[in-house]
Amino acid sequence: xxxxxxxxxxxxxxxxxxxxxxxxxxxxxxxGLATGxxxxxTYRELIRRHREESLGFSDxxxxxxxxxAGLAPDHEQSYHTTIRRExxxxxxxxxxxxxxxxGDVSDLxxxxxxxxxxxxxxxxxxxxxxxxxxxxxxxxxxxxxxxSSRTRVKTLAGTTRRDNARFFSDxxxxxxxxxxxxxxxxxxxxxxxxxxxxxKAEAVRAMVxxxxxxxxxxxxxxxxxxxxxxxxxxxxxxxxxxDYYREAQEMNDExxxxxxxxxxx
Length: 265
Ligand SMILES: N[C@@H]1[C@@H](O)[C@H](O)[C@@H](COP(=O)(O)O)O[C@@H]1O
Known about the structure:
Elements: E1 2-5, H1 9-26, E2 30-33, H2 40-53, E3 61-64, E4 66-68, H3 79-86, E5 98-99, H4 108-121, E6 127-130, E7 152-155, H5 158-164, E8 176-179, H6 182-186, E9 190-195, H7 201-209, E10 227-231, H8 242-255
Parallel strand pairs: 1-10, 2-3, 2-6, 3-5, 6-9, 9-10
Antiparallel strand pairs: 4-8, 7-8
Bound molecules: 2-amino-2-deoxy-6-O-phosphono-alpha-D-glucopyranose (GLP).
């Protein structure tokens, strides 16, 4: 796992965008897109590079991580609408290349299986952007999720529903969702997690420096071949090996190693 310590949310976005850009410029990239506030600065920076530095997404395919059950794709708070509003509609990624699990189907389990298979049929995800929940979830894999789980129906934790209530005008967050599993996420060639803010500090500590445990689902990234964790000072505030992460990053920067070239673990 590579830990990159940044000065601000904007800095986090730039470092994350560097890794995504590396894959996009290589051609025919498959991106894994996360919703939530954490990747906002990454998407802003990618949109800026699209507008000002001709970073093109026309041959990119994208899969989102998760979706609320019961919400149609065009619902204001569906993750399909959210990722379009935050990113996809601002670049030249063709809409038919955006894949999201469909939350308003009658057979959610079949939809989960279909979605997992579609990721495999696309050749897998090259770089999966991730945020982390305050309870350590990635996607909607709540604590005690199987570390080998596939895309499936999950019940949302009460804390997650409370955290996300701010996005719903009536405060009514669905109780069920579809989410890529931890086993699915682990298959992405690079896992790129961004976290900001003091309310993520404990989850970040458990993910990076705690034991691998379903109690903190994000800790499964310790088993990933190329996991990169990019943090602002508040999110990194409880890490005990911060000096080492800084030294390692200086060396990686000096050697010009990137996630795609696989120059670190
Ligand atoms: N399902 C999403 C996750 O993909 C996201 O990473 C996390 C953190 O959200 P935020 O980035 O808004 O703090 O919780 C949400 O519920």
